[in-house]
Amino acid sequence: MTFKRLCVFCGARHGKRPEYAAAAQALGRTLAERGIELVYGGGNVGLMGVAADACMAAGGSVVGIIPQALDEWEVGHRGLTRLEVVDSMHTRKARMAELSDGFIALPGGLGTFEELFEVLTWAQLGFHGKPIGLLDVAGYYAPLAQMVQNGVDEGFMKPENAELLLREHDIDTLLAAMAHYRAPVREQRIQNEKQL
User: pTM for the full model?
Assistant: First the structure.
């Protein structure tokens, strides 16, 4: 699989460790070098701004999608290839998903978690077959990976649903895993479509 655009979910803050910003910068630069357009939440703050700035500085293309309310708070990034201002958070997420061939989560807070789990849920339901990756910088996502495994161990998730989430510590390794990803066939969805 080759990628034209990848969506990056990440924090509107920098976090405590310098490794987080370094990873955001490296990811933005890597996407530019590979000719992959960066799609993200459109902010000029935190890791969001770092990734976007690095991609633009390396000659890449960046599309930001931001809700009107956040743009009015003057956090919309004006130095992008394109900034789309939309009416709501729901529209923002749908538009980012529509534009993207896959998703990468850098460290972030509640917004990042929510975006990540929404695209994972859509994948579980068979609404899309795009790869979803965690760039696990400095072990930030180790507790989340443990929580997902606990969901499997306790019978709330099928093992194949946990496998929808690709987790790597290195950008090149993650991008390679995403390029080789094949979405599982969803038997229930196929059965439902036969009934229509």
Answer: 0.93
